[in-house]
Design a protein that fits this description.
With 224 residues, the protein is mostly beta strands. It has a domain at 40-58 and 66-181 and 210-223: Lipid/polyisoprenoid-binding, YceI-like (Lipocalin). The protein contains two helices and nine strands, in the order αββββαβββββ. The protein has helices spanning 2-17, 101-112; strands spanning 40-46, 52-59, 62-78, 81-90, 124-134, 145-153, 156-169, 172-182, 204-223. Strands 1, 2, 3, 4, 5, 6, 7, 8 and 9 form a nine-stranded antiparallel β-sheet that branches. A hairpin with a 2-residue loop joins β7 (156-169) and β8 (172-182).
């Protein structure tokens, strides 16, 4: 009988401790449980065969243009919002579109040499997004983000920023951008008027223009 009474007393004590005593006139405070919100980051794999990168290099006497193949890349989206991306370019794939025959080969070989992109030592170039700023009131079909990231060429990384149009339609993500970068910041100084004198009409402009059109399809979903 004593054991039964002792058990009842312990149970009553535990039960009483499970409640908060509120003095008369004091409002009862209730704290809602915190809900964890899962954000689904969708990984879209770039399709190199459906994507295109075009370069333009200008000089006093004219200009040249060509293509660079994208080796691989990913675009990260949260629903339709851009969240990140990384892209690798195959520098061995550089072509020239405006010259023929031997002149074409000489220019391409020169671009791959140490005067320009040192392709044998650095077969790839990379761009990795580090910051994304939506552009307010962007009109349909115009750039809707300002993208900042690290561009690595010849093993040298520098930060660049440029406007881009990123869209998602029927499970296919596309990204389009046009921008210029100063090649001398990546130690590509051949015939630069800022580093060599008396070049005359042999001078080559420092700015290289890139036109980028990427097509990517959803690969996986990772929850964070």
């Amino acid at each position: 009988m004593k054991k039964v009474l002792l058990s009842l007393m312990v149970a009553a004590t535990i039960g009483a401790s499970a409640f908060t005593v509120v003095s008369p006139g004091s409002p009862e405070k209730k704290t809602a449980p915190k809900k964890s919100v899962a954000v689904a980051i969708q990984n879209y794999k770039v399709i190199p065969a459906e994507s295109k990168i075009t370069w333009i290099g200008r000089k006093v006497a004219g200009e040249h243009n060509g293509n660079i193949t994208l080796a691989s890349g990913t675009i990260l989206l949260d629903r339709t919002a851009l969240r990140g991306g990384t892209f690798i370019m195959d520098m061995n794939s550089i072509t020239c579109n405006d010259l023929q025959g031997g002149s074409n080969k000489r220019l391409v070989d020169h671009l791959k040499s140490d005067d320009f992109f040192s392709v044998e030592k650095n077969p790839t170039a990379m761009f990795a997004i580090t910051n994304i700023a939506p552009r307010a009131n962007a009109k349909s079909g115009t750039a809707n983000y300002t993208i900042t990231g690290d561009l690595t060429i010849k093993g040298i990384s520098n930060q660049i920023s440029f406007p881009a149009l990123v869209t998602l339609k029927k499970g296919v993500a596309t990204a389009k951008a046009n921008f210029k970068f100063d090649r001398t910041k990546w130690d590509v100084k051949f015939r630069s008027g800022n580093f060599f004198e008396n070049l005359g009409d042999k001078a080559i402009q420092d700015d290289v223009e890139l036109n980028i059109e990427l097509v990517a399809k959803q690969e996986s979903v990772a929850k964070k």
